[in-house]
Amino acid sequence: MHPLASSLPGWALFRARALGEAPSAAALARALAVDLPRAELAVAPEATLWAALPGAVAQFRALVAADAGRSAAPAASERTAAPGDDAASLLDLARALARRLLAPCRLCHLRCPVDRTAGPAGRCGLGPGLRVYRDYVHLGEEQELVPTHAVFLAGCNWRCAYCSDWAHVARPEEDPETTAAALARSIDARRAEGARSLTFVGGLPDVNLPGVLDALAAARASVPVVWNSNLSATPEAHDLLEVAVDAWVADLKYGGEACSRAGSAAPDALARVHENLLRVAGQAPTPGYLVVRHLVLPGHTDCCARPALDWVAAHLPGARVNLMGQFEPIPEVRGTAWDRRPARAEVARARDHARALGLDLDGPGPLDPPGSSGPGPWAAVPGAARGAPGAAPAFESAIRIDGEGRVVLEDLPPDLADLAHALGALAEADRGPGGDGAAAPGDLARRRAAAAPWLEARAEGPPGAAGGCFDPAAGDQ
To answer: How many domains does the chain have?
Structure first.
């Protein structure tokens, strides 16, 4: 284990929850009764529901501080039907409030003046339902989070020009809608298989909060939730997330507002991201485990990587940072400024800067290293067969052919991932500097045209914001 693992904020509690040694946040919120009948949640004034939340959250925090919630949320073998059928739980209260946030929508910083209960609307294009486009046990995330049950949710409030999941972001209605009960069954099954955590990603989980909370309420498993997000949700949404999320994987994409607008059509987002990072890092009584990710973008070392890392060092000392150098241009950006990988020198400069700042790029190490004991009692799922202690969970890899005839390997186990990267590097060297196709900038132009109204509607911004950032094709600056 990493020598500083015991001092990483939130790590010890997250690890205990992942290994089944303590109940997850959602499991505790399911077991904790509030002073409201369940039947009133749908009809009570919204102000009444919000008034009931602070006291319930204070009790939740006190239980976590006392014994990590063990006494209030017994393990599966000792579990009883609490709260009773008529009493609402804290998770029920959070679900009811999340539904109220749909009309008008107050889930993300854009606060679109739309009623999503009436159907797809707003920047994310979502209605009240939940659309899952991928669901599997993932071994390719940070080693302290895996194996994790990854649930990819359609819809997002940003429009990143280089997004690899553009169809699911821009056209979420094309993905089938699922029910909370169906997702809950998957959550229970993956935990029983041996998944150590449950990651909601996408797309963006923030704009799917009501459906996620419904699924967590219907599930029986105690599994820690990892919230993989651009962290642009509203304070109201974060009031509810506190009782359901155990770890945060936050994408700090940019170093300034101009690049945020140019790269993701995300006006006025960076300040909200910073506020939410400070909030989750300082969450009482103990913060959720936090991983701050930064993807090194081509040509954005000085304007984005360095300022983002400087901000983390100044405001989140001790945070775990994942500095990623695997930006891969997609066919839709062929012939544009985004059509290159970051140079090795760019990634090296960013990494050297992070280490000079003293940032933790390594993390605490695996959740359960060789020789550790089997899963604890909270890892058991009522009514599900339990695997052998230490057994590897099932997972799904994929080999596919993309639109340009290239072989793509997805979600490989770690022992094969290094081999695949080595083979990919050899293939790239064989291709030489000329690339392998003609430019097709039209697709990116259509993406930008689709995002333009959102930027025009929020044209007021800091000086120079409307001008965007420099052209990455011109090289690192």
So the answer is: 1
